[in-house]
Write a structure and sequence with these properties.
Number of helices of chain B: 0
Radius of gyration of chain A: 13 Å
Shape of chain B: globular
Order of helices and strands of chain B: EEEEEEEEEEE
Number of strands of chain B: 11
Order of helices and strands of chain A: EEEEEEEEEEE
Oligomer: heterodimer
Strand content of chain A: over 45%
Number of helices of chain A: 0
Structural class of chain B: mainly beta
Chain lengths: 116, 114
Amino acid sequence: GAVVSQHPSRVICKSGTSVKIECRSLDFQATTMFWYRQFPKKSLMLMATSNEGSKATYEQGVEKDKFLINHASLTLSTLTVTSAHPEDSSFYICSARPWDRGETQYFGPGTRLLVL
Amino acid sequence: EDQVTQSPEALRLQEGESSSLNCSYTVSGLRGLFWYRQDPGKGPEFLFTLYSAGEEKEKERLKATLTKKESFLHITAPKPEDSATYLCAVQARYSGGGADGLTFGKGTHLIIQP
């Protein structure tokens, strides 16, 4: 149990376009989901905490108007990278926390974004 | 500010050679300490959650322990398929405001040679 999926697994887009990444908890409900970013050979950095039915909480330095997060249901959160630029190219990973597993977060497989 | 330091950065072992990975942490009240395994190009795979000093968890060849300042991931008689990056993360006591994520260390890149 506790499977998290992400779609797409990789995406290439042109500079200036927007890209939407979906994160789904497949076999559990998650009131809280998280979005992380990972640069090559670096560790994961938290971008934002997404709570179902309310606005996301962004970490310091993360532009909320650039990285739009929507958590419309207990199994789905989306991250939209707006007006993407090459420096937004990265590995985006979401996680979800089941309500009955304490503090443990389960991670998705990640989405590789390349902005040309 | 919460901090997690993992050592060594990289470790190369022979198959069957046991060792330990270290995770030192500084956090304003620990809610949980987590170990994950990450393979190249994939998301982290959950291994263990530890909540209080003295707690131990085991799974196959892995054993995680926790003190008030650090955690160890012991690997007994490793196999080549244990090769991966092992990540340690902490979650601090919730301070309100909605932010509630994990702080990760940089990881230990483990290679097990046959």
